[in-house]
Structure formats: C-alpha cells, structure tokens
Amino acid sequence: MTTCGPVTKSLLLLAVVVALTGQGSAAAEKVSECCTTVSTKQITETIVDYMVQKKNLPCVNAIIFQTESGRLYCCKHNEPWVMKKVRQLWAKKRAALASATAFL
C-alpha cells in the first residue's frame, strides 16, 4: 500500500463541495496539491469514497480513493480493479440517495 502523491483531505473536500454545488469552472483557481503519479497496486484497506481527478499539469488523470482510516491513494483510472471499485461505490451512493428521497 503506497500513496502516490501529496494529496490532502482538503483537496477531497473541495472536490466534493464543487461537485455538489456545480460551480466549478476552468477559470477557478487550481489547487496546488494533487496526484502527480498514480499506482496500479490494489488497496487492501477498506475504501469508503473516491474522487475523479482530471489531467491538468502537473496533475494526472487519477481516481483518488479515501480509506476508512482517512488515507488518500492516487490510483490509475483505467485499471480494472479501480473501475470495478468506482462502480461499486457509485451504486452504493445511488442506493443511499434513492433511500433518502423515498422519505421525502
């Protein structure tokens, strides 16, 4: 298990806020810390969330996984195990949203 770049929780939080508010733009100030390298190794810790990072040098295309312990891992976005885990997490989020809206 290795982290592959100086990624911080604040980067993850910023991405979630931008994604939820839909107010991100190309002209927005770039966050200085990002994944500049990625790993192909599978993570053995329990993964609880993810974020998609698009290439914007020096940042590279990556999926950033957050584990139960709070650690962040930069992973190669097109690895089969990464794509499978993203689909699992997305399905879990979608089910939680459907469950929450059922009570409204």
TrEMBL record:
GO molecular function terms listed in the Swiss-Prot or TrEMBL record: chemokine activity
Signal peptide bounds: 1-27
Top-level taxon of origin: Eukaryota
Domain (Chemokine interleukin-8-like): residue spans on this chain: 33-89
InterPro entries reported for this sequence: Chemokine_IL8-like_dom (IPR001811), Interleukin_8-like_sf (IPR036048)
KW ATP-binding (keyword) present: no
Classification via Pfam families: IL8 (PF00048)
Alphabetic keyword roster: Cytokine, Signal
A single BP term in Gene Ontology: immune response
Cellular component aspect of the GO annotation: extracellular space
The keyword Signal belongs to this UniProt entry's keyword annotation: yes
Stated name of the protein: C-C motif chemokine 20-like
Organism this protein belongs to: Gadus morhua
Gene field: LOC115537260
